[in-house]
């Protein structure tokens, strides 16, 4: 079976999107399927028309001239469509597999219709909700409604829809898509790619000013929905009963300046360490510095519907964490078993939960074991990718019958 994936962006860029993609592609190849991969203009300008990264060959789409909002997206879709049609005629895939956003689905639908190739669409988050978080639109605005309509239009015109969690699946079905045409491919981890957390490097700990301290932390991109402002808001209360506590924030992003200003306003600048972005190869060294990870995501459509990778990666490494009780977390975490949940948006709830966890470290070994066992037996890529088989087989059989 030949599957042609149409992607927003890919490795060597680093994001949850690219890591999920690479894991899916490798597991599909392990099943004996041939996979081809095209990235949209949002990959950015590249030196070559195709390149191999970590054993995966990616075809690139030329970046069109920029234009105003609306025109820019139209140009991107036209460029993706032209490149996709050229490659699909040459490679003759059995299925076109578009991944969100809808800017990839529409070109795939148009090419699939012209060439008689079945199209599937995989939604990892809705484009309109991502735009709300980025601050480029507001929920219910004209742009929001138009983007939502585009997503629904695409979903109604593909042979099958895939998504990453039950929250998004319910939203898709509510748009009028038959349940049997929507399949969840859950977020997972490559367990063999994660080693159990190790002892902190004493030299790095000294360098970060964390020697002899208990460390709360977060590793990733600083988006507003991650709720790091709530962690900082809670910090003075946590310090009152845990004076040796420190916060380690590893990464960067749109909220970095705001978080630094908040730390200064709270008078805790000397107790919050911002490392900036670190090389991917070094991330595990920084994780090892953290005693307790905190994922305080705010409640909004995006976080209620979408399951993140971070808690699964933490479980795979045997790490201890507390997370807000948004829907995306509740799908992954068994409160008190694989992690702890606290009321989203509540600084008091965060403070109480973290304080309780710090006071009950005797419960941590059992939590580490339960988390690791969950990803080993349930949330692994072999289990997740197996869910593609039946819809793919149905569509390719129908394609052959019609061809």
Helix-and-strand structural type: alpha/beta
Proportion of β residues? 15-25%
**CATH class group of the largest domain:** Alpha Beta
The count of β-strands is 14
Features:
Rossmann fold; six-stranded parallel sheet; 403 residues; 2 domains; 17 helices; 14 strands; alpha/beta
Brief account:
The chain is α/β, with parallel strands linked by helices.
SSE topology:
Blueprint: E1 2-7, H1 16-30, E2 34-39, E3 50-53, E4 56-59, H2 71-91, E5 95-99, H3 102-115, E6 119-123, H4 127-134, H5 142-155, E7 160-163, H6 166-174, E8 182-184, H7 202-207, E9 214-221, H8 228-241, E10 245-252, H9 256-266, E11 272-276, H10 283-287, E12 292-295, H11 301-305, H12 310-316, E13 321-324, H13 327-330, E14 340-342, H14 347-359, H15 364-377, H16 381-385, H17 389-402
Parallel strand pairs: 1-2, 1-5, 5-6, 6-7, 7-8, 9-10, 9-12, 10-11, 12-13, 13-14
Antiparallel strand pairs: 3-4
Helix pairs in contact: 2-3, 4-5, 8-9, 8-14, 12-15
């Amino acid at each position: 079976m030949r599957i042609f994936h149409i992607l927003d962006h890919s490795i060597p860029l680093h994001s949850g999107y690219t890591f999920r993609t690479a894991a899916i592609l490798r597991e599909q190849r392990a099943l004996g399927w041939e996979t081809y991969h095209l990235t949209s203009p949002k990959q950015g300008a590249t030196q070559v028309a195709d390149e191999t990264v970590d054993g995966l060959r990616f075809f690139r789409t030329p970046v069109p001239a920029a234009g105003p909002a609306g025109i820019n997206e139209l140009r991107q879709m036209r460029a993706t469509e032209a490149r996709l049609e050229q490659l699909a005629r040459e490679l003759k895939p059995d299925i076109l597999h578009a991944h969100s956003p809808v800017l990839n689905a529409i070109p795939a639908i148009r090419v699939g219709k012209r060439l008689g190739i079945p199209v599937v669409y995989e939604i990892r988050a809705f484009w309109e909700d991502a735009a709300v978080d980025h601050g480029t639109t507001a929920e219910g605005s004209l742009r929001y409604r138009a983007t939502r309509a585009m997503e629904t239009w695409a979903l109604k015109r593909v042979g099958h829809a895939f998504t990453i969690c039950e929250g998004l699946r319910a939203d898709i079905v509510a748009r009028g898509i038959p349940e049997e045409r929507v399949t969840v491919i859950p977020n997972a981890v490559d367990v063999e790619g994660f080693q159990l957390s190790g002892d902190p490097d004493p030299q790095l700990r000294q360098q970060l000013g964390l020697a002899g301290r208990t460390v709360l932390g977060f590793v990733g991109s600083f988006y507003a929905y991650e709720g790091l402002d709530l962690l900082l808001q809670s910090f003075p209360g946590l310090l009152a009963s845990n004076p040796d506590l420190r916060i380690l924030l590893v990464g960067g992003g749109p909220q970095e300046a705001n978080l630094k200003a908040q730390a200064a306003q709270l008078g805790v600048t000397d107790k919050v360490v911002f490392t900036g972005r670190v090389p991917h190869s070094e991330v595990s060294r920084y994780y090892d510095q953290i005693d307790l990870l905190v994922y305080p995501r705010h409640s909004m459509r995006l976080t209620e519907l979408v399951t993140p990778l971070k808690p699964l990666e933490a479980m795979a490494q045997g790490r201890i964490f507390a997370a807000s009780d948004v829907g995306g977390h509740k799908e992954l975490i068994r409160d008190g078993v694989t992690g702890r949940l606290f009321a989203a948006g509540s600084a008091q709830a965060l403070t109480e939960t973290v304080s309780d966890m710090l006071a009950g470290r005797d419960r941590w070994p059992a939590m580490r074991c339960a988390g690791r066992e969950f990803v080993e037996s349930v949330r692994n890529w072999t289990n997740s990718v197996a869910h593609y088989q039946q819809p793919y087989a149905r569509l390719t059989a129908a394609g052959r019958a019609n061809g």
